[in-house]
Write a structure and sequence with these properties.
Blueprint: H1 6-22, E1 32-36, E2 40-41, H2 50-65, E3 69-71, H3 74-83, H4 88-95, E4 99-108, E5 111-122, E6 125-136, H5 140-154, H6 170-180, H7 192-205, H8 210-226, H9 233-250, H10 254-266, H11 270-283, H12 288-297, H13 305-314, H14 332-335, H15 351-375, H16 379-392, H17 398-409, H18 413-426, H19 431-443, H20 447-460, H21 465-477, H22 481-494, H23 499-511, H24 515-528, H25 533-541
Helix pairs in contact: 1-21, 1-23, 2-6, 6-7, 7-8, 8-9, 8-10, 9-10, 10-11, 10-12, 11-12, 12-13, 15-16, 15-17, 16-17, 17-18, 17-19, 18-19, 19-20, 20-21, 21-22, 22-23, 23-24, 24-25
Length: about 550
């Protein structure tokens, strides 16, 4: 028998699941996604670029340490600039950026003048704010503190930015960033040893560079490991030692977790690679390499196209030569089936081949556009894009499935249900079709058929967290609380970065009277989703909790 208080819990689970179905990332609504464009050095006399790079990367580093932000890595910003040169608004919309900073500097002796431009999207419109600031170059930490204070006073989104001191000198950072500028040519194996040794020598010459050097060393050696099969065990051990030495400071950083995922992937350890990618995505829902590695390692037999396509939306591969500072471009061979066709057509291509390439390119463009608009909850535009993609390639499942999901979210349950039944006949082994058909039955309160389809979806793909979450919810609605607890515990164990699952599990523990377990689960959900006030409110309401 369902206790009276359980009604609110069931409704809460259903609301969380609808949010999950609208966007596969539970964090997109709570963590601001920020990018910093390469800094322009106005009227520069010297030809090197070390100081603008210092400003861009050190400011990015500060955002990485502040949990309320997800920040785009400088190397990813470079890829976006190359893909969409000068197209600020399009970059922000496609990369799902909430704020984009552009800095222009002028340096005279020890005085620095900065012209800022802050781009943001509000009410679906691009906003632009220009302002200036003056600084004295006394120390790195003093400069960073002043830069953060400028942002704090100019925009409420940055009001809680905190300084994380770096304890490093300008001289040391100059040497480090000069080294990063040394080799922008394609990676040449013969030069690796000398280039890497020059990097490591910096730690003997300057204090405060150890972590930066180790991080960069991991990137370079992962690139080297990827070219060697089998990979020398001593090289893998050396990379792991560097990763372990960085763990205390960077374990919560998406970039660190993605590099760790790549380390496991290089060795063929798919399960561990997937686990690290999940943690990276929990910290940064728009981290393209994390999505790519998740898609490549999700199944033992074949990659997951949907996760890979999402990764390519956030991490655009371009036709330029490989850059030694971009670790994840080594994945290009595995990703080739999903990469856009080159615009360079061979002389042997006939008209039919050209037309097919053009159609495939247009289909991928429409599909990507529709998924982006779906994630932004722009249902009508997403529907139009998916319908156009479906006309181009009616034999594919993705556009039709998205159209059914949009109908579910717009409460057009009968339309969605009929479309999903047709898709099930055409794609009987597709776990996502089974999942959303189950959800359509759940919305019609046919919990038995919903349960059966969720179990079928899990059987087809045991790694689908949404199926486990929905199964747990429908078991609650059927009064089978212990079974629901078992499935939700399984989901959180397999996907520890899945905040919605921890939230539902915490509420279930609370209703079962297991208060210590409830507090543990809700604390985990709050750590993963720190801006969710509802989680914090429920935590404070638990017996024995102290109110703020």
């Amino acid at each position: 028998m369902v206790r009276p208080t359980f009604r609110s819990f069931v409704l809460c689970c259903l609301g969380s699941a609808v949010l999950l179905l609208a966007s596969s990332s539970a964090f997109a609504q709570t963590r601001l996604h920020v990018g910093i464009l390469p800094v322009q050095n106005l009227y520069r006399i010297q030809q090197d670029n070390w100081f603008p790079r210092l400003l861009e990367e050190e400011l990015t580093r500060q955002f990485q340490f502040n949990d309320q932000f997800a920040v785009m890595a400088p190397e990813t910003v470079d890829l976006w600039k190359e893909r969409l040169p000068g197209q600020i608004e399009q970059i922000m919309r496609e990369a799902r950026l909430s704020h984009l900073l552009q800095l222009s500097t002028q340096q005279v002796l020890q005085q620095l003048s900065i012209r800022w431009t802050l781009f943001s999207i509000s009410n679906n419109k691009l906003q632009k704010e220009d302002f200036r600031s003056q600084h004295s170059l006394q120390s790195v930490d003093a400069l960073l503190q002043e830069l953060l204070q400028v942002l704090q006073t100019r925009n409420a989104a940055f009001a809680d930015l905190l300084l994380f001191p770096q304890d490093v000198s300008f001289e040391a950072l100059e040497a480090f960033y000069r080294w990063k500028d040394l080799n922008h040519q394609p990676w040449i194996a013969e030069t690796r040893s000398a280039h890497l040794q020059a990097l490591r020598n910096l730690t003997e010459q300057y204090e405060g560079l150890d972590k930066r050097v180790r991080f960069q060393s991991v990137i370079l050696q992962l690139q080297e490991a990827y070219t060697q099969q089998p990979v020398p065990p001593e090289l893998l051990n050396e990379i792991r030692q560097d990763l372990d030495s960085l763990q205390d400071d960077f374990s919560d950083h998406a970039e660190y977790r993605a590099l760790s995922s790549l380390w496991f992937y290089v060795q063929g350890q798919r399960f561990e690679a997937k686990a690290e990618a999940v943690i990276a995505n929990a910290r940064h829902p728009y981290h393209g390499p994390a999505w790519l590695l998740y898609g490549l390692s999700l199944n033992d037999d074949e990659p997951n196209p949907r996760a890979i396509q999402r990764g390519l939306r956030y991490y655009p591969f371009v036709e330029s030569p490989e850059n030694p500072n971009q670790a994840f471009t080594v994945l290009r061979p595995e990703l080739r089936p999903w990469l856009p066709q080159s615009t360079q057509l061979t002389g042997t291509s006939d008209l039919a081949d050209d037309r097919q390439q053009s159609e495939n390119s247009r289909y991928q463009e429409l599909l990507q556009q529709g998924v982006t608009q779906f994630d932004q909850e722009d249902w009508e535009d997403a529907k139009a894009a998916m319908e156009a993609a479906q006309q181009l390639q009616p034999e594919t499942v993705e556009p039709a499935l998205y159209l059914a999901r949009i109908a579910l979210l717009q409460n057009q349950t009968e339309t969605a249900h009929n479309n999903l039944l047709e898709l099930r006949d055409r794609f009987p082994k597709n776990d996502e079709v089974a999942l959303y058909l189950g959800f359509s039955y759940e919305k019609q309160r046919d919990f038995n058929l919903a349960e059966s389809l969720y179990r079928e979806s899990l059987q087809l793909n045991p790694e689908n967290p949404k199926s486990g979450l929905r199964l747990g919810t429908v078991l609650i609605k059927k009064g089978r609380y212990e079974g629901a607890k078992s499935f939700l515990e399984s989901v959180t164990a397999k996907f520890p970065g899945y905040a919605v699952a921890w939230w539902n599990l915490g509420l279930l523990y609370r209703e079962l009277g297991e208060m210590d377990q409830a507090r543990m689960a809700l604390n985990t959900a709050s750590q993963l989703d720190p801006n969710n006030l509802q989680i914090q409110s429920v935590l404070r309401s638990l017996p024995g909790s102290t109110s703020e």
